[in-house]
Amino acid sequence: MQELVFSVTDFVAVLNQTLDYAYPIVTIEGELTNLRVSRGKWVYFDIKDDMSSVKCFGTVYMLPGPLEDGMMVRITASPRLHPLYNFSLNLQSVTPTGEGSLKRAADLLTDKLTAEGLFDSLRKRPLPYAPEHVGLITSKESAAYADFIKILDERWAGVKVSHHDVQVQGAPAVANIVAAIETINQLARPPEVLVITRGGGSADDLAAFNTEQVIRAIAASRIPTLVAIGHEIDTSLAELAADQRASTPSNAVQLLVPDKLQTMKALKEQQKSMAELVLGQLQATKQSLKETSLTMRHLIDQAYNVAAQGLQRQTDLLYALNPQTALRRGYAIIRDNNNLEFVKSVRNLKIGQIIKLELQDGTAEATVNKV
Amino acid sequence: MPKKQSYRALQSELDKVLTELQSTESDIDKALDLYKQGQELIKQLEEHLLTAKNTVEHLKT
C-alpha cells in the first residue's frame, strides 16, 4: 500500500473537511483563561479543565457582556485548524454558567452599562395606560404567553396584541429576542408599548436577559418597553434597561390596563354623579325662579302701595278742595240772582239787590240792605 | 354607518363632557344636553367593555 503524503496545506484542508463533517459545531463547558481582546473587536481566550486547554477565537459581538478569567463558560464553536496559527475553536456563542460565573458576568456588565448611563432613571419613558396595541415578545408555548393573554382577556377589551414568538432560553434565545425587538420596532404601525416576558427559571434559564445584546436592544427600542421576568428575588439587567419592570407576566398586564369590572363600576359612579350634578342644577334653577317670582311679587306690591298712597292723597286733596266741604263748615256761596254769577266782592253789590245764597243743604234768596 | 370610536377616544370625549358640565352652572338647557351626551358615551363605553375582543397577530422575523 502506497503511503499517503500530504502537502501541509492539503493536510490542513483535509483535516478541516473531516472536522466539518464529524463535528461542525461543538458545545464545550470549561473555565475561561487568558482572555484578551484585540483592537476592540477580536477575542481570544483558552477554555480549560484540570487536564486540558484549548484555544478559542471570536468577535466581541458574540459575547454576552464583559467576561474575566476564572469564569465557567459554555461555548458553541466550530473546531478549525488554521493554516498558520494552529488549532482553535471558532466561537459562535459564549454563555457564563453556574451561579458564581453568571453573577460575576452580570456584575461586570452592570458596571459597564451603568457607567454608560443605560440604566439612568432619566431615560425612562412613561408607558401608555390602557394601550390599544401591544407588542409581545415571548415563547408561544410558555406559561408566560398563556398567562399574559388570559389576564388581558379577563381585565380589558379591544386590545390588539402583536406577538413575536422567540426562544427565551438556550443558544438561540439572545439572537431571537434581539431580532424580535427590531422587527416590532420596524412595523409600519408599531405598538404603543413592547412587553418582553418569560416565566421564572434558574439563573442559567434567565441568562439571555443578562446579555449585553438583549439589554442594548431593549434600551434602543423606540417603543417604550415593559420587561417582566417571572422571578421576585433578583432583577435581570434587561429589566433595569426597560422603561418599566413587572414581576410576572400577569403583573405586566396589571400595569398596562385597568380592570374592566372596576371600570364598569367607576362608569356607574360617573353616571350617578352626572345625574346628581344636573339634578342639582335643576333644583338651583327652580329655586332661582321661585326667588325671582317672590321679588316680582314684592315689586308689584310696592308699586301698588305707592299708587294707592298717591290716590289717597289726591282723594284727600279733592275732598279739601270741594266747595261743598266749605259749605258744610258754615260757608255760603253768593250768586247774583239774575245771572247766577259768583259775587266775589262787595263792590259788585248794590243796596236792594237780590242775591242767591247757596248753603250745604239748600238755597235761599236775600236782599242786600247795607254795603 | 359611522366608524366605531376607540375606548380611549370615547373616554376622552366623556372627560370633556364632564368638565363642561361642571362649568355650566347657569345654563340648564346646555347642562341637560351634555347630560344626554354623557349618558350615551357611558353606554358606548360599557358596550365596548362587554363586547370588544382582544386579538392576537403572530409576527415573524
Provide a descriptive summary of the structure in words.
- The complex is a heterodimer of chains A (371) and B (61).
- Chain A is α/β, with parallel strands linked by helices and 371 residues long.
- Chain A is built from nine helices and 13 strands.
- Chain A has helices spanning 8-22, 99-116, 143-155, 173-185, 212-220, 237-241, 249-256, 260-321, 323-328; strands at residues 26-38, 42-48, 53-59, 72-82, 86-96, 133-138, 160-165, 193-198, 225-229, 244-246, 333-336, 354-359, 362-367.
- In chain A, the strands form three sheets. Chain A has a five-stranded mixed barrel. A five-stranded parallel β-sheet of chain A has the order 7-6-8-9-10. A three-stranded antiparallel β-sheet of chain A has the order 11-12-13.
- In chain A, β9, α6 and β10 form a beta-alpha-beta unit.
- Chain A is rod-shaped, with a radius of gyration of 55 Å.
- In chain B, α1 packs antiparallel against α2 (28-51).
- The longest helix of chain B has 24 residues, at 28-51.
- Chain B starts with 6 loop residues before the first helix and ends with a strand.
- With 61 residues, chain B is mainly α.
- The model of chain B has no long low-confidence stretch (mean pLDDT 88).
- Chain B has two helices and one strand; from the N terminus they run ααβ.
- Helix content of chain B is 66%, strand content 8%.
- At the A-B interface, α3, β7, α4 and α8 of A face α1, α2 and β1 of B.
